[in-house]
Amino acid sequence: MWQKQLQYHDPNDPVRKPSNVHFMDTTRMSTASIMQPQYRNRHNFMIFGGFLLKQTFELAFCCAASFAHSRPTFVSLDPSTFQNPVPVGSVLYLTATVVYTDPPVVAGQTDGDAPEKAQSGNEQTKVQVRVDSKVRNVDHRDSKPTGQFNYTFTVDKNLKVLPKTYTEFMMYIDARRRVRRVLESVQQGEADGGTGERITE
Q1: N- or C-end of the chain: fewer Cβ atoms within 10 A?
Q2: Separation of CA 125 from chain center
Q3: Burial class (CB in 10 A: 0-12, 13-18, 19+), 53
Q4: In this predicted structure, which of 27-31, 78-82, 128-132 has the lowest mean pLDDT?
Q5: Which domains does the chain have, with CATH numbers?
Q6: pTM for the predicted model, two decimal places
Q7: Cα dist. 113→128, 162, 169 in Å?
């Protein structure tokens, strides 16, 4: 995949980037907002976690819609944790990036697992959007991460995302591994449920 994206940048190489392949850095979308007191938890002066999830979901949805130029369908949110609280009056920064698409940009990629099958004729794509959040006080001196949220959508188009930098490749690989773990757990659950046996321990 690294060699493929290098070819897309080489003016002397006849290989041209397909129109349905988009570089990861072009999918990025960011917001900054002041945390108002009406969004706080009633027991303290920290912002309610449900409001933070709402903000990350809306940005992830907009990121996927901008990437696909169509309305995405929400599939799932990976398990997430809040690393640091978000106080009232602070500034919340959110950055959403399309980090993985399934089918992948290069068929047959392996990471020690079974190779992924090519699905070039598939016009529906799973889009995974990662939202990174951090909070700063008003004078912008202290910055703390507040969590990472990974949303999966489907779009009725054949689209691919392609990383360019080392950091983007690490984000891509991390997202691909999460997708494979979910798939393995679903397949394992179907296999266990299909035997007719019940675990009583």
Answers
A1: C
A2: 13
A3: middle
A4: 78-82
A5: 2-106+117-192 (3.10.129.10)
A6: 0.80
A7: 20, 20, 18
pLDDT per residue over 17-34, tens digit each? Answer: 788 999 999 999 999 999
Residue 106's pLDDT band (cuts 50, 70, 90): low
Report angle CA 66, 161, 104 to the nearest 5 degrees. 130
Q: How far apart are CA 30 and CA 60, in angstroms?
A: 10
Residue 131 structure tokens: 């939202």
- Backbone φ and ψ for 175, nearest 5 degrees, come out as -65, -40
pLDDT digits (tens, 9 = 90+) for 148-167: 999 999 999 999 999 989 99
